[in-house]
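Allow me, if you will, to draw on your knowledge of protein folds for a short while. I have a record of one protein: its chain in single-letter code and its fold written as discrete structure tokens. I remain grateful for any guidance, and I place the record below:
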Amino acid sequence: MKRIALFSLVTLALCACQSNQRDSSPSLFKDGVQLRQKTVAVDAEHAKVIMKAYGGTAPVEFSIRREGDPDQRMETLGTVMDTGEGRVFNWIAKLNQTVASAGFKRFPQLEIQADPGKQLTVASTANNRGNGVYYSCGPVMSTFSPEKAKVYLVEFQFKLEPSACALQVFDITDPGNRVLIGGVGSEMKAS
């Protein structure tokens, strides 16, 4: 009985410890089963930022820090996964998306609204293990200042030669014209 009480106290103490990150990512307990991620609309006063992964199947966790936010810890937004849309049969991509979204809260993309003129720092990390192989790359970061009524794509890219990853920011306000913007980005080798 004493061991159970001690174990309960230790568990409670560990749960009460503060983390160095804020977490607003969706969870099964908090949000239930979700077949689609939450979306945001573009408006005249804000920018829309879309976060995606491309080129690999490892889940990628995204976090942000907004300039002017009183709490400057990184805020975890959630996990995305490249479902292979456009590169595999459509029904396979949709099946991958449904299973990953509903069960694991890994969406094809995450979306947020950003305040114009204030720097936004986006960090991402990919981790995967399976079949005796462990892949880890990140965190990679990119910092940029969004503009009003624009749409940005922050893309985590799995690089094959050499085994590395990168984070790039594109202005995709005009969907037919993907423009790399001049933010501070980073690239690193996988471990």
Notes: The first helix runs from residue 2 to 16. Residues 9-18 have pLDDT under 50 and may be disordered. DSSP finds three helices and twelve strands in the chain.
